[in-house]
Structure formats: C-alpha cells, structure tokens
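May I ask for a protein sequence together with how it folds?
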Amino acid sequence: MIKKIKIGGYQVGLVFENRKLVKVLEEGLHWIFGNKNVLIYDMNAVFQAPFELNILLENEVLASMLEIVEVADNEIVLQFVNGNFKEVLTPGRYAFWKGIVKNEFTKADLSKIEITEDIKVNLLENVKMRYFVRKFIVASNDKALLFVNGTFVKELKSGTHYFWNNAITIEVKTIDMRQQQVEISGQELLTKDKAGLRINFFVRYQVVDIMKALIENKDFEKQLYVAMQLALRAFIGGLTLDELLNKKDAIAEEILAEVASKIENLGLKISDAGIRDVILPGDMKEIMNQVLVAEKKAQANSIMRREETASTRSLLNTAKLMEENEMLWKLKEMEYVEKIADKIGEITISGGGNVIGQLKEIFVK
C-alpha cells in the first residue's frame, strides 16, 4: 500500500508503524509505503503526544524539534509567547515546537509563601493567576502584622502584599494607627454619699506600639474599656456628689493618672478624656433645683441687705455734712424744690402779699 502525504508549512508529520514512531515528516510531499499511520501536527499549537511522551522522544529528530517543560508538584510555570503572557502551566510535562514562536518560561515554587520570582504585579492580578495568589491590602493609615501558621513573622507596611496560595496558613492582622475614641456610656454609679447617678465618659486614644496591642494583648480595645470603667467607678465612689460636681473637669486627669501604666502596657497613648454628661435621677434633679433656688434667693437677699446698708450709710454721711455746712443744706433744699417744681403744672398767685419777697426768703437766708 502506498500513501501520498502532503505536509504543509508549519506542520510536522509523525509516521507510526505498530504504534512505534518510525519517521518524522517535514514540509513537502511524501510517499508512505506499507501499513503505516501518519499524524499531522500544527507547529503553532502545543504538541499533544498520542501516547507516552518519553517513548516518542527516543526519536532524535522529534526530540530536537521539541522544547520540553517539566512542572513538578508545588510548582507552576508561566508561559510567555513572543514576550506576552499566555498561560499558567500546572504540574505535568509539556512539549512545545521550536522555531515557530519564541517561548519563554518562568518557574515559580508554590511550596513557600513569599513570591521571590521576578513576576510583575499586573501578572499577579491576571485572572489566570488568581487561584495561585493570595492578596492582602494594608491601608495608608494602617499597620499590619503577618502570621504564618499562627507564628508572627514580620510587620507589613501600607500597600498591597501578595503571597503564594498553598496549604500554609497566612493571617494578616491590621490596626488603625489614627486617633480613635471609646465611649463609656450610661455608667450607673454611686457616690460616696450614696447618690445614684449615670455618667457618660469618653477616651481618645492612639495605638503607638502595634506589637503590644496585637501580640502581647488580646482585644486591647475591650481591655481599655474595662480599665477606664473600673477606674471611673472607683474614683466616683470616693467622692460626694458636691465634690463630683465641683471637680467634674479635673476628674479625667486623675483617672488617667491611675491607669497610665495599664494603658502603656496595651501599646496605647491617651490624648484626651473627660466626663461628657452627669445624669441625675428625677427626684435628685428636683432637690438640686430647690437647693439652687434657695441659694439664689439667699444671694439676692444678701445683695439687697448690702445695698440697704450702703444707702443708709450714705444718708448718714450726707446728714452729717449738711449739719456742718449751711450752704450744703441750702443746696439740698433747692434740689428738693426742683423735684417738687417738676411735678407742678402751673402756679396761681392770689392775695396781695409780697410773693417775690417770700421766694427770696426761701432761697436766701
């Protein structure tokens, strides 16, 4: 039996006899004698071996035409064709035709977490790479700690961090380094004189030591809340209601001084704190209002008494001066006459008396 086989451009023919590769056909017209089978391959595509590749590679001609890429377990290989990323090769053995396109390969070891290979970020973001890459973002105002299999490894700066995706457990704990605020609201407390009240307290803090906050302590925010709550209860319990109201603005400083060492051990710095509200029960409010009204009345009475005393003292001094000075007496008389005259609309004169003379007697002694 004779067969005529035509091999076109960028094609290769493999001649098999009894499942054994006996000849490689390149471009051109070929005559095949006997009971042989011919498979034609496109050199622009990946070579797919019809059976075990190792057996085919025993043919030196075919072996010289193929580039073999072996990908072991826990590895991937990035294939680039003419400089452009094309595919991710998973564990296995691959054969590519030589000379048609420029194939380049970058091998990556997935048994570790750090991406030490020279792979650009845009490739790590490629949809074909998503399964093999873990991505963590640390915001500009944050810091983060990297834990591998539960063990702290290093601190991560702001930015995007990529790690290989494998069986190794990775955890990234982030923390906001900006100033934050904790509200300690609705604390029902008893003062030293057994007055019940509710207090709203606030604390502004900032993380200054991320190692203490995240590694040496668990739930540092809860610990801060409890520490401030207990300090507030202890301090208020040592003051009477009047002392509390008088020292309201200074209480925060004294409380912070009490818990300073605990706050430092949490890796925090307190920038501000204070009592936002002191809320009294309804009956206590009424009593306080009554006390306030009584105090204001007492103040008003005291002021009135002082004014009356001052007025009396002024009259006494005036009387003494008038007694000692006749001219001052006349001036005072004229002042009163002027006041009386202001209230008189008109004067009617009757009789034949000497009115002018009488007026002179009033003002001239």
